[in-house]
Amino acid sequence: MLDFLNQIDTSVFLFFNGMHAPFFDRFMMLFTGRFIWIPMYAAILLVLLRTHGYKSAGIYVLGIALAITLTDQTCATYIRPIVERMRPSNLENPLSALTIVVDDYRGGDYGFPSCHSANSFALATFIALMFPRRKMVMFIFGWALLNSYTRLYLGVHYPGDLLVGAVIGSGFGFLCYRLARLLDNRHIADTSLERLHRPLFNIPVEMEWANVGRASIPVTVGDILIAVGAGTAFYILAASVIG
Q1: Given pLDDT bands bounded at 50, 70 and 90, which one contains residue 214?
Q2: How is the chain classified by DSSP, letter by letter?
Q3: Which of 40, 119, 149, 215 is the most exposed place for a label (fewest CB within 10 A)?
Q4: Residue 19 class from Cβ within 10 Å (0-12 exposed, 13-18 middle, 19+ buried)?
Q5: Is the Cβ–Cβ distance between 111 and 156 less than 8 Å?
Q6: Rounded to the nearest 10 degrees, what angle do helices 189-197 and 221-242 cross at?
Q7: Confidence class for position 16, pLDDT limits 50, 70, 90
Q8: Around Cβ 6, how many Cβ atoms within 10 Å?
Q9: 135-158, pLDDT tens digit by residue?
């Protein structure tokens, strides 16, 4: 059974890893970086402060940090040394001869499960539970999915590594969110969601052609978070085009 699953995992990996182009090589290498997403992490902090205040925001920031720490340690410190599944890019793995890598980036020795995928989904699950609104959920899980896919594209993880990592990360994200909510005895879900959608300011728009006079576009903290994430992705896209 394990051999059968491994064959499927390898076949799916080779299919997706084989689809390469210079533009996507640059895009995936930039997107997979951790430091390039610092502006988005700062925007998440802004959203927490705006919707929950300093004390409660501190609890949830610690909850996110705990979720990522537990996720990372579980994957890297406990599971990987036991399973010892070599990355497809590992030169000691016979599959490395068929694996396409970018800029000779091969990662470490073992890759099951993927810490990158696990940490991304821990954060995404935590944020989605805090702000269960369609636009926010779609944005943060879309980011986590693409961030995970970069690891397959770059040849450092099998699909199974990513899937198991996502499950572990989502589990710790859920548990740490529930713990943070228990510690936050002032938590009022409806109020925090109302603040999430309360406009910070309005952008005036002239619409005389539509015969409706002056209108405005409300901008919320949730919009700012999504805009910062989208702006970072656009920067990565532009940098990949320029090359």
Answers
A1: low
A2: -HHHHHHHHHHHHHHHHT---HHHHHHHHHHT-SGGGHHHHHHHHHHHHHHHHHHHHHHHHHHHHHHHHHHHHIIIIIIHHHH--B-TT-TTSGGGGT---STT----SB-SS-HHHHHHHHHHHHHHHHS--HHHHHHHHHHHHHHHHHHHHTTS--HHHHHHHHHHHHHHHHHHHHHHHHH-TT--HHHHHHHHHS-SEEEEEE-GGGT--EEEEEE-HHHHHHHHHHHHHHHHHHHHHH-
A3: 215
A4: exposed
A5: yes
A6: 50
A7: very high
A8: 13
A9: 889 999 999 999 999 999 999 999
Mean pLDDT value across the chain: 88
